[in-house]
């Protein structure tokens, strides 16, 4: 009942503020078209194509982990979830291993961090590299610690069974087909949560006397990461806390990205609890590591 009331409340907010909702939706669509699609689509297609090629059997456990991390963590969200899900479907990793890998193979793309955040926002590619190192360091430490504590139980459940491949369709065509659903998911969540964050921030600011910049940045950071980064830059660039604020927003990720990952993971039968724990871990650790390295 509470969910129904919440949904109706949001519907009324969208009806009462169509211009604000439209502005947020347009902003989300522009973010997707200009900042996400050009980098995400080619990488997802190539990753899917590579994963659909016949793989060598008998590879070591850690070589499969490295493969998942390299392919999944350097293409941006939600490539990690797509990569791990495909490897689970191929029988390269078990269900238990895939839950830890989805939690760990989760990072923004290097081009976004180094090029956009580092060069354009921080004015230094070196700062972008330091932030990227902090993110990957937190991910790797989480995975190693989790495997150290749960490794024996997780290894026992790993029974790779390579399914029959569909030889009627080429791997490239299948990768393009599978990638289209992922891209549609990303576009839908980015546009929806950008519009939602915009409507809620204006609504709260009109009812409660709070700083619009703080409200908008906080809500957009919770709902859509890239919009939150843009809002933080608009309102807090030049402040001493600005680098740590950007690191925190990138660690929180936002509901848009979480919905993408959870939808992909659920469709492959992957547990999401380790992913939730890892996001709390990264939110607390990445800003501290970044400031320490910075």
Helix and strand topology:
Blueprint lengths: L1 H15 L1 H35 L8 H13 L5 H11 L5 H10 L5 H12 L3 H32 L14 H37 L4 H12 L1 H12 L5 H11 L2 H13 L5 H21 L1
Helix pairs in contact: 2-4, 2-8, 3-4, 4-5, 4-12, 5-7, 5-13, 6-7, 7-13, 8-9, 8-12, 9-10, 10-11, 11-13
Entry keywords:
294 residues; mainly alpha; 13 helices; 0% strand; globular
What does this structure look like?
This protein has 294 residues and is an all-alpha fold. The protein has helices at 2-16, 18-52, 61-73, 79-89, 95-104, 110-121, 125-156, 171-207, 212-223, 225-236, 242-252, 255-267, 273-293. It is globular. The relative contact order is 0.14. Keywords: Membrane, Transmembrane, Transmembrane helix. This is Sporulation integral membrane protein YlbJ. It comes from Sporosarcina ureae. The chain crosses the membrane at residues 31-51, 98-117, 129-150, 182-204, 240-260, 272-293.
């Amino acid at each position: 009942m509470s969910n129904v009331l919440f949904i109706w409340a949001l519907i009324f907010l969208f009806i009462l503020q169509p211009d604000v909702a439209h502005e947020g939706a347009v902003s989300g669509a522009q973010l997707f078209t200009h900042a996400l699609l050009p980098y995400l689509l080619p990488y997802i297609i190539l990753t899917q194509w590579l994963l659909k090629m016949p793989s060598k059997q008998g590879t070591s456990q850690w070589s499969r982990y490295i493969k998942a991390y390299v392919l999944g963590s350097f293409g941006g969200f939600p490539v990690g979830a797509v990569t791990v899900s495909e490897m689970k479907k191929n029988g390269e990793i078990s269900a238990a291993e895939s839950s830890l890998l989805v939690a760990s193979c989760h990072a923004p793309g290097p081009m976004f961090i180094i090029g956009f955040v580092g060069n354009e926002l921080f004015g230094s590619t070196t700062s972008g590299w330091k932030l990227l190192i902090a993110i990957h360091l937190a991910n790797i430490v989480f995975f190693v610690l989790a495997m150290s504590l749960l490794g024996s139980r997780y290894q026992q459940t790993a029974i790779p069974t390579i399914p029959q491949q569909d030889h009627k369709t080429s791997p490239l065509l299948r990768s393009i087909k599978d990638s289209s659903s992922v891209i549609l998911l990303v576009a839908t969540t980015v546009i929806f949560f950008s519009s939602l964050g915009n409507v809620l921030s204006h609504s709260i600011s009109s009812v409660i006397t709070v700083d619009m910049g703080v409200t908008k940045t906080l809500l957009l950071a919770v709902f859509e990461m890239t919009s939150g980064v843009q809002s933080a830059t608009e309102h807090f660039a030049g402040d001493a806390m600005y680098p740590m604020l950007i690191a925190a927003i990138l660690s929180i990720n936002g509901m848009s990205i979480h919905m993408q990952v959870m939808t992909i993971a659920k469709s492959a039968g992957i547990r999401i609890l380790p992913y939730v724990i890892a996001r709390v871990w990264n939110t607390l650790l990445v800003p501290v590591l970044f400031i320490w390295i910075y």
